[in-house]
């Protein structure tokens, strides 16, 4: 990749953590280039039930400097593995109610297949590698979730 293309990509690629509400459309529109035919956006939000347990709310915590550094690495890896143009990742921290967006990942690509594949890969890797932890709070207890694994606490 030429230095110019790398520089242009870095002007559009972004990742961020926030305690503020996420606007899914606003995140997605930050990476829409004229050279692409598709932007795939994942809107990850708080669901009411996890299995049979009713969720009251979630709390997200993260080691912010390392989380941002790891998200940047994921963006670089996605560019190496998929034919994509730009990536945007925004993740909430703090207390979230049912229905609130916790993570937005948008991927722009010349063709939709690469955008879908990269978006799916990014959420899986984000959950696996980025130091952001989720506590699911229920009426009868709580569970800390790390990646796809949970540790129960009552």
Number of β-strand runs? 10
CATH superfamily: Molybdopterin biosynthesis MoaE subunit
Count of folded domains: 1
- List the quaternary state of the chains: single chain
Which structural class fits the helix and strand makeup? alpha+beta
Q: H/E order of the elements? A: HEHEEEHEEEHEEE
Number of helices in the DSSP assignment: 4
Percent range for helical residues?
25-40%
Q: How would a crystallographer describe the biggest sheet?
A: 6 strands, antiparallel
Morphology call: elongated
CATH architecture: Alpha-Beta Complex
Note the beta-strand portion. Answer: 35-45%
Would you state the CATH class?
Alpha Beta
Mean pLDDT: 90
CATH topology: Aldehyde Oxidoreductase, domain 3
Can you characterise this structure?
The chain has 154 residues and is α+β, with helices and mostly antiparallel strands. It has one domain: Aldehyde Oxidoreductase, domain 3 (Alpha-Beta Complex). Helix content is 34%, strand content 41%. It is built from four helices and ten strands; from the N terminus they run αβαβββαβββαβββ. It has helices spanning 3-12, 24-29, 64-81, 112-129, and strands at residues 14-18, 38-45, 49-50, 53-62, 86-92, 94-97, 101-109, 132-138, 141-146, 149-153. Strands 3, 4, 6, 8, 9 and 10 form a six-stranded antiparallel sheet that branches. β8 (132-138) and β9 form a beta hairpin. The N and C termini lie far apart (52 Å).
């Amino acid at each position: 990749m030429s230095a110019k293309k790398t520089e242009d990509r870095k002007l559009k690629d972004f990742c961020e953590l926030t305690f503020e509400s996420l606007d899914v459309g606003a995140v997605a529109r930050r990476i829409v280039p004229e050279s692409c035919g598709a932007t795939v956006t994942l809107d990850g939000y708080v669901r009411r039930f996890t299995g049979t347990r009713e969720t009251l709310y979630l709390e997200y915590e993260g080691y912010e400097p390392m989380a941002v550094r790891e998200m940047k690495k994921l963006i670089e890896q996605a560019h190496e593995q998929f034919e994509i143009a730009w990536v945007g990742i925004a993740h909430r921290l703090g207390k979230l109610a049912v229905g609130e967006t916790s993570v937005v990942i948008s991927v722009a690509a010349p063709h939709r297949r690469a955008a879908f594949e990269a978006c799916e890969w990014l959420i899986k890797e984000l959950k696996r590698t980025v130091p952001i932890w989720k506590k699911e709070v229920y009426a009868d207890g709580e569970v800390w979730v790390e990646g796809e694994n949970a540790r129960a606490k009552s």
